[in-house]
Amino acid sequence: MLPCRGKGDGREKGDILLCRKPACRPLVSTPVAFYNEGMSTTSKSPKAVLLAAQAVAAEAIPAYAHRFSPKSYTQHQVFACLVLKAFLKTDYRGVTALLADCPDLRATIGLRRTPHYTTLQKAAKRLLASEATTPLLDATVRRFLARRRRVGLAAADATGFETRHVSPYFLRRAGRDGKRTQRYTRFPKLDILSSCRDHLILAACVGQGPRPDVTNFGKLVRAAARRVRLSRVAADAGYDSEANHELARDELGIRTAIPPTRGRPSANLPTGKYRRQMKQRFPRRMYRQRWQAETVFSSMKRRQGSAVSGRSYWSRCRDLWLAVLTHNIMLERQAC
User: Fold this and answer.
1) For the chain, first and last CA: distance in Å?
2) CA-to-CA distance for 239 and 1, rounded, in angstroms?
């Protein structure tokens, strides 16, 4: 960094200046690498994803579910096959057919023979249950962050997934007026809390919508605080409540930025302490990064699909958990 010496001092383009004079501000230019520091990309290699998924499973779960199990495949190998299924946007039969045709993929994780598709389906019921995904998500966070445990800013948001693959063009042409759209009474819903720096999912809640977002804020923040040292959280107005502010600020020591717009519109200030602060001095600069959570959803739906294949409530929840784990496993830290 160079100190400012006025105009015409031989500065090069890209120098970061320390002067705050109005005349010098237009000359300040920050290198692009300064903004891209710590960002991540998603892997495009099936072998790399298989190896990463096997390493995550080896850290989180035992090799066999029971000491008297057949021991034909380890849980680490089966979990890697499930992640490959989500990575390739296929079903159980499709991933087993691919493994049968590609001996190199089997050799990557040490499979001597291809598992039957029902083996993967039964393993998904066991490995992707809500209580079983906690150690797996912990392992993905530890693997990506390595020694770093501090997350400066995280964003919370929710999205819905489709339950069937329907063309938007068909939906527009389905009605006589040409404006008919698909209406959902129930749909799979995913709430996440992700790091704004590298798009790593720190916590997630799966369920069925439509339902309010505000009830899941405490679950997300508590789970994320157990995994990392979280400093700030930005969330949209769906998570607005005085109880959520008190939980994050008073109990966990996390600053929050949530617009206080829930409830009936009124000219009066909110009665709660923290919601009143949000109304009077809203941290707009911190809240601007909340859109990073939308980028996470966009990446998940583009790479893994916007529809889940499950037909029951629990199978759809397992599909959402697999999508979250696959997203974290696919992440690769970009060299600065």
Assistant:
1) 18
2) 41
* 87 found inside a domain: no
- Tell me how far CA of residue 312 lies from CA of 178, 186, 187, 216, 293, in angstroms: 31, 12, 11, 22, 27
- Rounded Cα distance between 221 and 223, Å, is 5
Do residues 162 and 294 both lie within one domain?
yes
In this structure, the answer to whether residues 161 and 306 fall within a common structural domain is yes
Contact between 229 and 150 (Cβ < 8 Å): yes
Is 78 within the bounds of a domain? no
What's the CATH code of the domain at 305? Answer: 3.30.420
Contact 275, 137 (CB under 8 A): no
Residue 226 domain-assigned (yes or no): yes
**DSSP 8-state secondary structure symbol assigned to residue 238:** G
Dist CA 187 CA 210 (whole Å): 7
- Closest-CA residue to 2 (of 22, 23, 27): 27
**pTM score:** 0.83
Domain extent at residue 218: 150-263+270-311
pLDDT digits (tens, 9 = 90+) for 130-143: 888 999 999 999 99
Asked if residue 41 belongs to a domain, the reply is no
Whole-number Cα distances in Å, 76 to 121, 154, 270, 284 = 15, 30, 51, 44
Are 306 and 172 in the same domain?
yes
CB 137 within 8 A of CB 99: no
E strand or H helix at 208, and its extent? strand 201-209
Domain count along the chain: 2
pLDDT tens-digit map of 267-300: 788 888 999 999 999 999 999 999 999 999 999 9
Each residue's pLDDT tens digit, 201-218: 999 999 998 899 999 999
User: Per mean pLDDT, which of 7-16, 129-138, 261-270 is the most reliable?
Assistant: 129-138
